[in-house]
Fold:
Amino acid sequence: MPASSEPASATGVYRAPMIGGADRALEHGVCGMSASDERSLRRVDRFEHVPDGAFVWTRTDDGAFFLGRLSGPLREDHGSGAVAADLTYVRDCRWTADPVPEHEVPAATLRTFARGGRNFQQTHDPDVGRQSAAIWRARGPDSAWTDVGTEMNPNR
Structure:
């Protein structure tokens, strides 16, 4: 898996609601969406071009928050489970093994979910990258994406 050498804040932090599909995404180690028209296909195109290593937050149907990091190319999954979960366009994603307690989730992330909506979108906040990186260091599934200073170290 190629690693980005950009600082975590340069790769961005995104909200991925995956309403009805977050549990499947966590189980299968993916992040994704579906598309049915030209507008949603443009969202898929933007999702495809998000850099590897970008942080992504999701929330399960029962309200649990998980932090992940995107990796690898976009692929299509038209299996019955993926279609039922609205996750037909996916990318690999490493997720925290356990939910992140709500009091630890960055305030900007909480605000993006409070607004509602189904769109994958970047969170524009000056602190959310640093905060997400700290949570990843503390809760990430392994040290493969651990940030060292502002540089990512995939070989640690």
Q: What stands out?
A: The beta strands are 13-15, 30-33, 55-59, 65-76, 89-95, 121-122, 147-148, 151-152. Residues 2 and 52 are 8 Å apart (CA to CA).
